[in-house]
Design a protein that fits this description.
By secondary structure, the protein is mainly alpha-helical. About 60% of the residues lie in helices and about 0% in strands.
């Protein structure tokens, strides 16, 4: 991997479109998500350590842990980065004209292509499996969809929880509607949609240790579906309520809502951004505990 974990955290953006979107979705953990940028700054924020020597010791130990191939941190980073870019719309090369903090749709609508519902469903399921695999790599545990669903309830906090909230909103509700879980579950029973060969599947394929990989993907979504529904119901999420949250920095005409998912898909990298922060937090906590 070309970039060190230090460089990755130091170079995270502080105020781009991804950060704006994430901040607008912090209802998942109100007031508890901070966009931690800078590795030394993250050490202080996470551990409370402030002395230069202690920060340096934690940083050096975190680097060693990250560079040790026996740990799964580098694989997790690769997953977060690659799954985010595996199936982006060409909107990535055609961001809206920026006027102050406003992003307008009109100048590049002809370059956007909303995904079919079936394709969007596949993307969502595969991102979810990428998260499951990354979680197992970070914590050094075996893949288990049911245990992963339990971990979402008990162990997901900070940027990890926000990432999953963003997945529900951006890849689920906006393109597919607030009832997307039941829709996809119905499709699991009736559809013969083949995941093999899709860009996101190619990312996770070799990391799924079972022969029936498509079955594993579907099982993973089904296991997490109830948790997703609970989030949707708890926060009364709808497509319109999400559009209202984005209204402060994206101008969206009522007849262009179908393009919103394509815009967000092409212009944000929330999986990579929060994934880097998640790995950094795990490294820092482990390094701090080992040195205490």
């Amino acid at each position: 991997m070309s970039n060190s974990i230090i460089d990755l955290v130091d170079n995270l953006p502080t105020n781009n479109i991804t950060v704006k979107v994430l901040k607008s979705l912090d209802f998942v953990l109100p007031g508890k998500w901070g966009n931690l940028v800078g590795f030394d700054n993250s050490i202080s924020a996470i551990t409370g350590v402030t002395t230069t020597q202690d920060i340096a010791e934690i940083r050096d130990r975190a680097i060693d842990l990250y560079d040790d191939k026996k740990n799964g941190y580098q694989t997790a980073i690769w997953l977060y980065q690659t799954v985010d870019s595996a199936d982006k719309a060409i909107a990535a090369a055609a961001l809206a004209d920026k006027i102050g903090d406003t992003f307008r749709f009109i100048p590049f609508l002809d370059k956007l292509t909303p995904k079919a519902d079936s394709v969007q469903s596949v993307d969502l399921k595969l991102k979810l499996v990428a998260e499951l695999i990354a979680y197992s790599k970070i914590h050094g545990i075996a893949l288990n969809p049911v245990k992963f669903a339990t971990s979402l309830k008990e162990n997901y906090h900070h940027e990890a929880l926000l990432r999953m909230g963003a997945l529900i909103c951006i890849d689920g509700i906006i393109p597919l509607g607030a009832n997307f879980v039941s829709t996809i579950r119905t499709d699991l029973d009736t559809s013969n949609t083949n995941l093999v060969g899709t860009p996101a599947f190619n990312v996770v394929n070799d990391l799924i240790p079972v022969e029936d990989k498509q079955g594993f993907v579907n099982e993973s979504f089904d296991a997490v579906g109830d948790w997703m529904n609970n989030v949707i119901n708890s926060f009364h999420l709808t497509r319109n309520s999400l559009v209202d949250r984005f209204g402060g920095f994206i101008e969206i005409a009522d007849d262009k809502l179908d393009y919103l998912a394509a815009f967000l898909d092409g212009s944000t990298n929330f999986f990579e951004h929060t994934g880097i922060q998640t790995v950094a937090r795990q490294l820092i906590n482990r390094a701090y505990q080992e040195m205490s």
